[in-house]
Amino acid sequence: MFVTWSNRARDSTSARPISKPAYELPAGEDAAIRRYVRFGNPYDAVATRNGRTLWLEAKGTETKGAAVIVSRREVQWAREHVGDCVLGVLSDVVFRPDGEVDPESGMFRVFTWYPDGGALSARDYDFTPAEDDRQN
């Protein structure tokens, strides 16, 4: 059984659509996949096995996948669910000339998704100007 992310998920480096199975559950395991829905959630899929819930965050990229882009909400969710989150990274994705993913391309790896256990770097900031700095 495969847990898949949105059939039209976006490559985190180019925003092009990709589609690939994300996580293969071991054969014979009693697992129920409740959702594959990406939109509106800080995770991509949920699997429940023997009463335990596992949250999957899936990333795809044309790069080697040494680093992937994650959102604030994804980081917060993983921090709040330590030990119950995995990060699936499909790297080395190749697009054919017609824009479709070459199904033979890509290397898939699954990691424990614990943001404070790896290198988490800020990509942007929120800035709120001070009212005293207003010019008009």
Question: How would you describe this protein?
Answer:
The chain is mainly beta and 136 residues long. It has one domain. It contains 1 helix and 9 strands. The strands form 3 sheets. The protein has a 5-stranded mixed β-sheet with strand order 5-6-7-8-9, with no helix packed on it. A two-stranded antiparallel sheet has the order 1-4. The longest helix is centred in the middle third of the chain and has 9 residues, at 72-80.
Task: Give the secondary structure arrangement, pairings included.
Layout: E1 2-4, E2 9-10, E3 17-18, E4 21-24, E5 31-35, E6 45-49, E7 52-60, H1 72-80, E8 85-91, E9 107-112
Parallel strand pairs: 7-8
Antiparallel strand pairs: 1-4, 2-3, 5-6, 6-7, 8-9
Please provide a brief summary of the model.
7% of the residues lie in helices and 32% in strands.
Average of the residue pLDDT scores: 77
How big a fraction of the residues is strand? Answer: 25-35%
Low-confidence stretches: 1-26
**Whole-number radius of gyration?**
17 Å
- Specify the overall morphology: extended
- Spatial strand sequence of the major β-sheet: 5-6-7-8-9
Q: Which class of secondary structure composition applies to the elements?
A: mainly beta
Q: Helical amount among residues, as a percent range?
A: under 10%
Number of helices: 1
Report how far apart the termini are: 60 Å
How many domains? The number is: 1
What is the β-strand count? 9
Task: Give a quick account of the main beta sheet: strands, pairing sense, barrel closure.
Answer: 5 strands, mixed
Order of helices and strands: EEEEEEEHEE
